[in-house]
């Protein structure tokens, strides 16, 4: 399957959440869904030499590296590093409502400078053979999305952007926290559909507030090319990912979260043997049985026991058995 087909469904880039352990878990739940890294800033890679931020497991493919930055040459170099590490796609973050950093602006504020974003995309495009994509908002602050979004898309397409994911709400750069900026500005899915009408050849994924596979399928049936899911995929990974392969891609079986716990054990063992801590992996597994009988027991045992010194794989067995007792 080609990357563009995998992009029918993706798990959003989420700082502190979609790290390599989380992605490994998500990959066991769905073999096909495209996974994104947390945002890695170009300055951290290029000036800071923090190449460990690029480490990932071969099993995670297809996996996209999301970069933050606004300097074309630096982003090109960061993209080169990402491609050399084996990422399948390099994505530029134009949606994060973060403050300016020393290196200049990055994230959603780039919605105000489509020419600069185009320069960044063109530089990244020249630097790597893998696909270069953009994740953006519909606008920021007092911008009129109907006007700015088509111009933004036209510029990045002309610069060689192959796919775009649109988080279907504005970012308000003044006065809202990043968290509030994921909930308060209203969603405008119709605008995303209209963009597909204006750019029929551009692969457009919609993001924001999509919390079930039913909803994802409705967007795909409605003419969009892809759906990106963030928080719901993290908090209820089984609901979103277990049936994704069969329903969204028409391949494979529905995965079983319990079998996935077993399949995580060798991975966790290897992590522990290399000096890692249990909780670094299991924190992403808390929602695995969300909505199922005993889910609370599972979550409680993992959250209480995994951080204890010396905690090992037996915590998973205890959590499963507490869950089963509760469910019985
Ligand atoms: C904890 C957290 C961290 C996030 N970090 C990033 C990030 O690094 N890059 C990015 O483009 N978006 C980031 N986002 C935004 C998500 O990618 C997504 O656009 C947003 O959560 C809306 O989708 P959802 O409603 O499906 O969660 C983050 C969201 C959350 C909840």
From TrEMBL:
The lineage's top-level taxon is Bacteria
Quote the catalytic residue positions. Answer: 96 (proton donor)
Q: A single GO molecular function, which one?
A: tRNA-dihydrouridine20a synthase activity
Q: Which UniProt keywords apply?
A: Flavoprotein, FMN, NADP, Nucleotide-binding, Oxidoreductase, RNA-binding, tRNA processing, tRNA-binding
PANTHER family on file: FMN-LINKED OXIDOREDUCTASES SUPERFAMILY PROTEIN (PTHR42907:SF1)
Q: Tell me which family the UniProt entry assigns to this protein.
A: Belongs to the dus family. Belongs to the Dus family. DusA subfamily.
According to UniProt, the reaction catalysed is: 5,6-dihydrouridine(20a) in tRNA + NADP(+) = uridine(20a) in tRNA + NADPH + H(+); 5,6-dihydrouridine(20) in tRNA + NAD(+) = uridine(20) in tRNA + NADH + H(+); 5,6-dihydrouridine(20) in tRNA + NADP(+) = uridine(20) in tRNA + NADPH + H(+); 5,6-dihydrouridine(20a) in tRNA + NAD(+) = uridine(20a) in tRNA + NADH + H(+)
Name the SUPFAM superfamilies for this protein.
Answer: FMN-linked oxidoreductases
Give every DUS-like FMN-binding domain span: 11-309
Upper lineage = Bacteria, Pseudomonadati, Pseudomonadota, Alphaproteobacteria, Rhodobacterales
* Stored NCBIfam families: PRK11815.1 (NF008774), yjbN (TIGR00742)
Q: Where is this site: Interacts with tRNA?
A: 93, 179, 182, 296, 299
Q: What EC identifiers does the entry list? A: 1.3.1.91
Please give one Pfam family short name: Dus
User: What InterPro entries does this protein's entry cite?
Assistant: Aldolase_TIM, DUS-like_FMN-bd, DUS_fam, DusA, tRNA_hU_synthase_CS
Relate the protein's function as given in its record.
Catalyzes the synthesis of 5,6-dihydrouridine (D), a modified base found in the D-loop of most tRNAs, via the reduction of the C5-C6 double bond in target uridines. Specifically modifies U20 and U20a in tRNAs.
Coiled-coil residues:
none
Q: Where does FMN bind?
A: 13-15, 66, 135, 167, 207-209, 230-231
- How is this protein named in the record? tRNA-dihydrouridine(20/20a) synthase
Which metal ions or organic cofactors does this protein require, according to UniProt?
FMN
